Amino acid sequence: MLRYLLGRLVSLALSLVAASLVIFAVIEIVPGDPASYMLGLNASADTVAALRHRLGLNEALPLRYLHWIAGMATGDFGQSYTYKVPVADLVAQRLAVSLPLALYALLMAVLIAFPAGLLAAARRGRSADAAVMGATQIGIALPNFWFAMLLVLAFALHWQLFPAGGFPGWGDPLAGIRALTLPAVALALPQAAILARVLRSALIETLGQDYIRTARAKGLTVGQTMLRHALRNAMIPVLTIMGMQFSFLLAGAIIIENVFNLPGLGRLIFQAITQRDLIVVESVVMILVFAVILMTFLVDLAYAAIDPRLRKRA
Amino acid sequence: MRVSFALGLALTLAALAAALLSLVWTPYDTATLAIAEKLRPPSDAHWLGTDHFGRDIASLLMAGAKTSIAVALVAVGIGIGAGVPLGLLAAATRGSLADEVVMRGNDLVFAFPSLVIAILITAVFGPSATNAIIAIGIFNIPVFARVTRGGALSLWTLDFIRAAEVAGKGRVRISIEHILPNVLNLLIVQGTIQFSLGILAEAGLSYVGLGAQPPTPSWGRMLAEAQTMVTLAPHVAIFPGLAIVLTVLGLNLLGDGLRDHLDPRSRRAA
C-alpha cells in the first residue's frame, strides 16, 4: 500500500508541474508584453515599465516560473492588478462560495442518482427502469444554465421559495444554503442523470456474477444482495465518474454562478478576463486544475481502498 | 430500443435540416431589427414569437443551429484528426516511451475542463467562435486517443493481426489497413457522443460570452440575452433551450442506437 501511495504521489506531483508549465506558457504567449496588455493601449511607457518591474517581468523566464510556483506553494499568489489586494485573499473569499456549491451539488447528485440507479437495475427491463432511463436521457441533454433559468422562473419568481440570485454570505448559514439550493439543483441534475446511468449498468454487470447467485442462494433478499454485494463491486466505475464530475461541477459552477450572480471563482475569473487581470486568471485556472488533479488522485486512492487487487497492480 | 433510435435519428435530421435550410432560407431575415414587433408571443406570423429586437425566434433558431452544428462538427474533426493517429501510435508501440508520452499527455488535457481551456484561450486571444472550436476540439483529442488506443490494443492480440505481421507488413501499415477499419464503429459512436457534448459546450461558452460573438446567431447567446427578459416574455428563454435539449437528446439517442447496432456485445449488456 505504501509503494502504491508513493507512486500515486509522484504522478500527482508530475501532473501539477506539467499543468503549471502549460498555464504559465499560455499566459506567456499573450501577444506582446503582459504589462502593456494589462494596462491597455493608452498607457504611458513609464507606467508599463513600472508594472513590468512590479510583476517581475524583467527577470529571466525560468526564474519567473520558479517564483510563481514557489509563491503559490507558500500561499502567495501575487497581487491582483485591478483589486490591489493579494490574489490569495480574493480566491479564499470566492472559494467560500464555489466549494460549498460544488459539494452541495455533488451531494444532491448522489442523493438523486443512487436511488434511481438502484431502482432501475433492480427493475431492469420493466416500466420503472424505462421511466428512469428516459428521465436520465432528458437530464443529460439539459444545459444546466437553461435549467437554472427555468428553476428561477418557477421557484424564485412564481412560488418565491428561493432567492433568484445573489449570496448573503455565511453569517446566517441557513440563508446561505437557501441561496445555493437552486444553483446546486441546476448543477446536480445533469450530473445525477449520468451517474444514475453508470450506476445502473455497473450494477447490472455485477448482478450477473456468480457470487451474487451464491449470496441469493444462501438466503439473502434481493435488497440485501444489492446493497452488500452488488453495490460495493459496482462502485469502481461509479467513483471514476464521480471524480470526473467534481471537475465538471467546479467548471460548471463558473457558468451557474453567472446565472445566479454568485460571488464565486467563476465570476472572479470573468471579471479578471474583462479587466485583463492576468495574474488572477493564471492563479484561478491553476487552482481549478489543481482541484481536478487532486480529485483524480483521491479517486485512485479510493479505488485501492475498495479493491485490494488494484494496490498490487500498481 | 428501435423507437428511441428512430426518434434520435428524426431529431438529429431535423436539426441538420434546419441548419442547412438556414443557409438559403429563413422565414424572416435574422439581421433586420423590427423594434415595434419586439417580444411578441408565438402567433401565426411568428410561430415562436419575437425577441427583444423584434427578430423572428424561429429564424434565429435555424441560423443558431448552423453555428452550433458547425462548431461541434469541427471540434469533433479536430478530436478525430489528432486523437485517432495518437491512439493508433500508442497502441502500436504499447509500453514504449511514445505510448507513455501520449497517455500522460492525455491525462494532462483531461485536467483542463473544456471551459477552463476556453477561459485560458479567451484570456489571451479574446472570445470568438473559432476559439470555442479550438477549446472544445482540444478537449476532444484525448477522448478519441483513448477510445482508439483501447480498441486497438485488444485488436493487436488477435490472430489476423499477427498474420499480417508475419506477412511482413509494418506497424504503420497494419494500423491503417487493419486496425483503423476495426475501430471505426467505436469512433462513430464516440463521435456522436462528442458531437452532442460539443453542442452543449458551445451553448455554454456562448452563454457566458466566450463563444460566438454578435451578429453570429447562437443558441447560447440567445439564452444569455433572454435572461433579463425571462419574466416579461418567457418564450424568449424557453425555445432556444428546447432547441438545445432536443438536438442533444436526438444525438444521444442516435449514439445509443448506433452502439447497439454496431457492437453486438452491448446488445446483451444493455
What does this structure look like?
The complex is a heterodimer of chains A (314) and B (270). Chain A is mostly helical and 314 residues long. Chain A has two domains: 2-73, no CATH class; 94-306, MetI-like (MetI-like fold), CATH 1.10.3720. Chain A contains 13 helices and no strands. Chain A has helices at residues 2-28, 34-39, 45-55, 61-73, 87-122, 127-141, 144-158, 173-207, 210-217, 222-260, 265-274, 278-306, 308-313. In chain A, helix 6 (127-141) crosses helix 8 (173-207), helix 8 (173-207) crosses helix 10 and helix 10 (222-260) runs antiparallel to helix 12. Chain A is globular and about 80 Å long. Chain A starts with a helix and ends with a helix. In chain A, 38% of the residues are buried. The mean pLDDT of chain A is 85. Chain B has 270 residues and is mostly helical. Chain B has one domain (3-19, 35-269): Orthogonal Bundle (MetI-like fold). In chain B, 74% of the residues lie in helices and 0% in strands. Chain B is built from ten helices and no strands. In chain B, helix 3 packs across helix 5. Chain B is elongated, with a radius of gyration of 22 Å. The model of chain B has no long low-confidence stretch (mean pLDDT 87). The chains are: A mainly alpha (314), B mainly alpha (270). At the A-B interface, helix 1, helix 6, helix 7, helix 8 and helix 10 of A face helix 3, helix 4, helix 7, helix 8 and helix 9 of B.
